[in-house]
Amino acid sequence: MKKELNFNRRKNRTRIKIKSLTDKPRICVYKSNRFMYVQTIDSDGNVIGAVSDKSLGKLGKLGKNNIDRMKELGKMIAEKLLKKKVKDVVFDRSGYRYHGRVKAVAQGAREGGLVF
Predict the structure, then answer these.
(1) CATH assignment of the domain containing 85
(2) Where is 91: in which H helix or E strand?
């Protein structure tokens, strides 16, 4: 119970800061036990673009390394946003700690050309 409470506190604290500071779209990350989902939401709450780990296919060319797969996921979301002429975004880690797969998504998005 305490673990869930701490997660929700972190999530709400970061969400309040992000929404109050800027009108830029935010890149939201969600981790399930099997997959990872990344979507971009504008200030009105509309989804601009979304990608998931499922879209990379089964292991494929990237192998089993999760970090490489997540960097590729970040590059894919950056590609979609640049087509829609969105370059400046805010990274919303949704209460997850900024390391491992979450950090890899952010690095991939930066490598793809997004600024945050």
Answers:
(1) 3.30.420.100
(2) strand 90-92
Looking at the 3D structure of the chain, how many domains does it have?
1
Residue with tokens 């930066």, as numbered in its chain: 110
Mean pLDDT of 72-78: 93
Element (H, E) at 101: helix 101-112
The pTM of the full predicted model, rounded to 2 decimals, is: 0.83
Within a 13 Å sphere around the CA of 58, how many CA atoms are in the beta-carbon half?
Answer: 0
Q: How far is CA 12 from the centre of its chain?
A: 16
Q: 73 φ, ψ to 5°?
A: -65, -40
Whole-angstrom distance, CA of residue 80 vs CA of residue 58: 21
Domain residue limits at 30: 2-112
